[in-house]
Amino acid sequence: MKGLLLLDVQKGFLQKGDFQDEMYKIKDLIHIFKNNGDLIISTEHLDFQENSIIENGTERAELVDFVFDNSDVIFKKESPIAFSNADLDTYLKQKNINHLVVVGFNSEYCCLFTSIASVDRGYKTTLIEDATATVNTPETYEMKNLDIRDFVGCILDWSGIVEVLYFDEYIQKYE
Length: 175
Hints:
The chain is α/β, with parallel strands linked by helices and 175 residues long. It has a single domain (2-165), classed as Isochorismatase-like (Rossmann fold, 3-Layer(aba) Sandwich), CATH 3.40.50. The protein contains seven helices and six strands. The chain has a six-stranded parallel sheet with strand order 3-2-1-4-5-6, with helices on both faces. Helix 5 (107-120) packs parallel to helix 6.
């Protein structure tokens, strides 16, 4: 069975850029997974840093409505690795999930680290590159012209352990 893992699709992230295309793809994936009887698993990152874009206890920390409304389960976490909440792995095993499809925020943190940790725990893992996003810029990393999302996708793809697909490729291969 497959599970769609929605990482930190929180209001504060969406206020920091135009992520309309990524959100359409995530909504389409939710619809596909629901129709196939697969599970929707979400994480909510807890950030206790004052004035963080997803500061815990503020509206910015809340999951966007369509994610909250369509999630079969939501796990809270304080680390970029979703599996830092041990209940996630327990839940996936109980539900016989063997393939995780990863989307959400931020590409270079939670999506990257969670994808690697997922494989390490024995799950087939697919990252949908164009259904991930980041609020960071090349200037954040002092690397002019860096395409952060593409860089993360390349690292994971070249690793040979995480399947990296674009949304259309996923649909063509699995639907």
